[in-house]
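Quick illustration for those who missed Monday's session on complexes.
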Amino acid sequence: MSECSSHPSNATGAHATHANNMPITRATFDEVMVPNYAPASFIPVRGKGSRVWDQTGREYIDFAGGIAVSSVGHAHDSVVAALVSQAQKLWHVANVMTNEPTLALARALVEKTFAERVFFCNSGAEANEAALKLARKWASDKFPSPNATHGETEKFEIVSCLNSFHGRTLFTVSVGGQPKYTQGFAPLPGGIKHVPYNDIEAMRAAVSDKTCCVIIEPIQGEGGVTPATKDFLHAVRELCDQHHALLIFDEVQSGAGRTGSLFAYMNCCAVPDILTSAKGLGGGFPIGAMLTTAAIAQHLGVGSHGTTYGGNPLACAVSLAVLDIISAPETLANVHARHDQFFAGLNEIGHKYNIFKEVRGQGLLIGCELADKWQGRAKDFVKASEKQSLMILMAGPNVIRLAPSLLITEADVAQGLEYFEAAVAELVAIESAAAIAAPAVKLAVVQPDPQASVRATV
Ligand SMILES: Cc1ncc(COP(=O)(O)O)c(C=O)c1O
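Prediction with pyridoxal-5'-phosphate bound:
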């Protein structure tokens, strides 16, 4: 269960090639990929624990965790063993049959949570899509309009929070509370209301007997790593009960052990009707899950919803091995211990360089909101960290986000924080030099640091 954090690189320095013997480099991305991402300048080729090596053999510390996915680090021995073992047995049968890994994983999730029934899919967006469709279908079945002929109901409204993120399908992006992600994709699905996060009065005004569900992230991840208050979650639970609406917790990012409990709802005592999970549940193998009660699940009858790959034996075998690790008390204890270490270190760096307004989050989902002077510059910190051989994330332009492996060691956190401080010191020095040279000019481009690549190879 321990994380192998230091492993000599065996990268050869030779770049992979494709059939025509053309080298595969970062430039290849711009030549052959749809330009909806702007990946880092290096290409990782191997990982072990919380260390990653790129094509040149340079070693990085991973505080990004593949956006809160690599819950047990890279290439964990028992997860690799589960994958290899299943790969030699059965890869795929589709949903016309069931399979043993699917049922074993579903049983384990049912045993460890409020849920009685599970639906598997391949991503967080798909899990939310299933949850939202289930809520609509549940309302259509239970509260039909008086003259309904095709499942019409007045109880179709979905209440969501501003700044939330629920995925990139047209439905989930519309339910998400960030207009920048729906621009250009109209017409959008209707019947969706948005209220400010943690605003009980606004929620009270929005939820009515027309509401079929409220969907909430217990911690807004992509929207800036903002935890919900316990009062807010309790109030929403009460409102849902009062108006016979379903409460969906989107735990795609906050779940799978990330907060130090298997799911974040376990920290706040507000139990949802539907919970969605993905990301860390597969530790890097694509999987999504929707968990609910038997009474609610029965409204997704045969043929009402599905996906070819949902419950894929490889994904479920891997996820079962991951679940075993992330639900172990020693893993969850490590999440709490490393949280404290991160908070102490980040607050120290924040005070020393005066760069943060706030360090927040739960467990190993941590956000550092930039001080006013640094607003809009999160990307600069990501790039500066890369130069220091550290992988970090942003959550919007003003928040640095960390979501490392739940097994990350004390030593790796300490070393990664050293790298981070070096990145911060460099940015601050550049900023100060720019302010002296030309007060009105802001340097957005980070200059290369020759020392960083030297240090990265030792
Ligand atoms: C809270 C939350 N919900 C849903 C999603 C979408 O998950 P996926 O990218 O696997 O579709 C994400 C992804 O960041 C997320 O953070």
